[in-house]
Amino acid sequence: xxxxxxxxxxxxxxxxxxxxxxxxxxxxxxxxxxxxxxxxxxxxxxxxxxxxxxxxxxxxxxxxxxxxxxxxxxxxxxxxxxxxxxxxxxxxxxxxxxxxxxxxxxxxxxxxxxxxxxxxxxxxxxxxxxxxxxxxxxxxxxxxxxxxxxxxxxxxxxxxxxxxxxxxxxxxxxxxxxxxxxxxxxxxxxxxxxxxxxxxxxxxxxxxxxxxxxxxxxxxxxxxxxxxxxxxxxxxxxxxxxxxxxxxxxxxxxxxxxxxxxxxxxxxxxxxxxxxxxxxxxxxxxxxxxxxxxxxxxxxxxxxxxxxxxxxxxxxxxxxxxxxxxxxxxxxxxxxxxxxxxxxxxxxxxxxxxxxxxxxxxxxxxxxxxxxxxxxxxxxxxxxxxxxxxxxxxxxxxxxxxxxxxxxxxxxxxxxxxxxxxxxxxxxx
Length: 429
Description:
By secondary structure, this protein is α/β, with parallel strands linked by helices. The protein has two domains: 31-65 and 336-428, Aspartate Aminotransferase, domain 1 (Alpha-Beta Complex), CATH 3.90.1150.10; 70-334, Aspartate Aminotransferase, domain 2 (3-Layer(aba) Sandwich). The protein is 37% helix and 16% strand. The chain has helices at 6-16, 55-58, 67-79, 91-103, 117-134, 155-159, 193-206, 231-243, 295-302, 319-333, 337-352, 381-390, 412-428; strands at 33-37, 40-43, 49-52, 110-114, 142-146, 179-181, 210-215, 219-220, 226-227, 246-250, 274-277, 289-293, 361-367, 370-375, 393-394, 401-404. A seven-stranded mixed sheet has the order 4-12-11-10-7-5-6, with helices on both faces. A four-stranded mixed sheet has the order 1-2-3-15. A three-stranded antiparallel sheet has the order 13-14-16, covered by helices on one side. The longest helix has 18 residues, at 117-134. The radius of gyration is 22 Å and the shape is globular.
């Protein structure tokens, strides 16, 4: 296969490979990546390089081909690549669990490892449902969330995504019926007390049937790249405590520094009962996620007729993934990551400011290492993508959004170039 031409690869790709959120066969030729290093991907066309403005769907926070992470994978590979986690354990997984307990909000003491963010959310929902069933309250079986959210593409996560504006409207009437609050008012610095009252009232009205509330804290990701006040997290914590409902934070997209705090929950100094992490967990090297919970949640499950969490992914606790995840966390915390994220935030604010005056642009917003240009119409994905590529940058627009989440190692000149490319995409999209 290494002898195939780029044209042959594209032809075989179109014939056999089903890409995410795409038709089969594909209608648009993907770019063929030959290699990647730092913040650049090299295409198999003889030399084109693109700055990755997406951190490979928000995961490659240290960029590509990082020597520390490479060494972590190689070193673990020499010892063992995988062993089953049922009845066995190993140092990389144990060390990773301890790291996660140490750095996440207080009270999260137990760690369930899985192999993707969507599965981490499945596990979180299952934890909450099984907790109440084990305590003799099976009627507490619904989840509450707010509109505008996105939690993954498997079954329970789809049920708590936005039921109308999200990607899973197709499954209405089939998915479990959950309780939806209004979308949180936009604006990181804009707290609306009446909306906090809305959350309190809705949770109180449904408390008898609610197992948990699940939200993306501070930033709603693929549901619309919207920012909201951390004050709503405090309102949720107060309402859940008052009405005996569990609280779940989905930090898969926001964890590990992306919003300017290590976890988005830290903006509010709030600890959930269950928390999901993924994406940047391994620095973009291997697929791994984790669901953390408090002793209260675990103890509730252990009191049931079935006293075990009924879940067990084949590749749970994979040593390669656990080793590189530990190395990625150490690499992040061993540097002044907060200053780096703030630097990127400043560069995006400056570089994207001109987009606000472009025809068809509704809003420009920046938080941490996240920059968003929202249009007043659905983006022409092909035209916007091509414009960014011509500017030397890879972005992945969707719906009415052109956005960027650069790796934390992106230099100032490259941040400026990313911003110019997003503006160019907004002009064409």
